[in-house]
């Protein structure tokens, strides 16, 4: 941000080193809200990493700009270690979260409690495959 300034509009990201996850080229297309709907900017940079945690650590070192979920960057933002940019045009995308557990006759109370917690914290409970639930 020191070198290229704080982006004021999505196109400003084209001047920045935007880092992304290596296994999904689609994650280089960052969505933004516009008057005409969602617009994607194809970002680029000199760093790709295999994990979001790697990108977070690189961003904390000042290597470049990242776009990751609040669950990953929230603490660093709250502590002032990272700066949020383009929040006014940010397009939040729903990300699926799955609870995977062995199928059995009775789900343990601990598993049920965890699923209830995840549902309360992150979203709605989808239709269950278990007809008893």
How would you describe this structure to a colleague?
The model is unreliable at 126-133 (pLDDT under 50). Strand 2 (29-34) and strand 3 (37-42) form a beta hairpin. The strands form two sheets. This protein has a two-stranded parallel ribbon. It has a two-stranded antiparallel ribbon with strand order 2-3. The longest helix is centred in the last third of the chain and has 14 residues, at 109-122. With 133 residues, it is an alpha+beta fold. The protein contains three helices and four strands; from the N terminus they run ββββααα. The chain is elongated.
Sheet-strand content, in percent, reads 5-15%
Question: Rough shape?
Answer: elongated
Instruction: Quickly count the helices.
Output: 3
Q: Give the CA-CA distance, first to last residue.
A: 50 Å
Specify the structural class. alpha+beta
Most strands sheet: 2 strands, parallel
Low-confidence stretches: 126-133
| SSE order, one letter for each helix or strand | EEEEHHH
Mean pLDDT: 86
Spell out the key features of this protein.
24% helix, two-stranded antiparallel ribbon, 133 residues, two-stranded parallel ribbon, alpha+beta
Secondary-structure topology with pairs:
Elements: E1 20-21, E2 29-34, E3 37-42, E4 48-49, H1 52-60, H2 70-78, H3 109-122
Parallel strand pairs: 1-4
Antiparallel strand pairs: 2-3
Summarize the structure.
The protein is an alpha+beta fold and 133 residues long. The protein has helices at 52-60, 70-78, 109-122, and strands at residues 20-21, 29-34, 37-42, 48-49.
